[in-house]
Design brief:
Keywords: Kinase, Transferase. This protein is an alpha/beta fold. Helices cover 30% and strands 24% of the residues. It folds into 2 domains: 124 residues, Endonuclease, Chain A; 75 residues, Endonuclease, Chain A (2-Layer Sandwich). It is elongated and about 60 Å long.
């Protein structure tokens, strides 16, 4: 193993993550950690973890100015027989031992080069070494996420028009973005089934005739 790169948004006091990163740094591995110090209620914890990692030689970055880094990403770089290989974890849940026992989250563990190379590019962007803006597989806000969302909504509408199975399920912390809601309203007026799982605030009005007749919202 050559390097580990990871985002830390919200972690717990008993997390094994910080210990593992600390030991790897002490063993001479390249450790890059992006710590979000604007994570509400965890600002002090994150500053403490960041200082601990800096003390053992890890490269700690504090995000992109003006933005909050909410991504949950890990990239492991290994030197293998065939050369350097990337392994990536892309998830929806914080690397937090407490909330991992309570919440339902999704995670993708992959070694597909076309995906892992984009994760590597994204870490370079977050740490100030790249300004890549043409991601194909990753949805990166504010670069391309809303555009990709609109494209996929249109794709499902195309399936619907052709008589193929179609529908959308969305799981989010909150829904207040006007552009995203307009895309949902537009698709619903055309009959596309849409199911939303919203943990927090939802500004969209579901089940309104002529506006959102096919939208169902479940509040978590």
């Amino acid at each position: 193993m050559v390097a580990i790169k990871q985002t830390l948004y919200r972690t717990s006091g008993d997390t094994p993550v910080i210990g593992a990163l600390t030991r790897a740094a002490e063993d001479g591995k390249q450790i890059v950690v992006l710590v979000e110090i604007k994570a509400r209620f965890d600002e002090q914890n994150n500053i403490r973890w960041a200082r601990q990692l800096e003390q053992v030689g890890a490269h700690v970055a504090y995000g992109v100015p003006g933005l909050k880094t909410h991504a949950k990403l890990v990239l492991v770089v290994r030197q293998e027989e065939g050369g350097v290989r990337y392994y990536a974890h892309i998830g929806t849940g914080n690397y937090n031992a407490v909330t991992a026992r309570q919440y339902t989250d999704f995670g993708l563990l992959t070694a597909r080069r076309e995906i892992t190379e984009e994760v590597a590019d994204l870490f370079n962007y977050l740490t100030g070494y790249s300004r890549k803006r043409d991601y194909r597989y990753l949805w990166v806000a504010p670069i391309n996420a809303i555009e990709r969302f609109e494209e996929l909504m249109e794709r499902e509408l195309g399936h619907l028009r052709e008589g193929r199975p179609a529908g959308v399920m969305i799981k989010v912390n909150g829904l207040t973005d006007g552009r995203a809601m307009r895309a949902i309203y537009n698709a619903s007026r055309q009959g596309l089934p849409i199911r939303l799982l919203v943990r927090g605030i939802c500004a969209l009005r579901p089940g309104v005739a002529g506006l959102s007749p096919s939208v169902v919202v479940h509040s978590v």
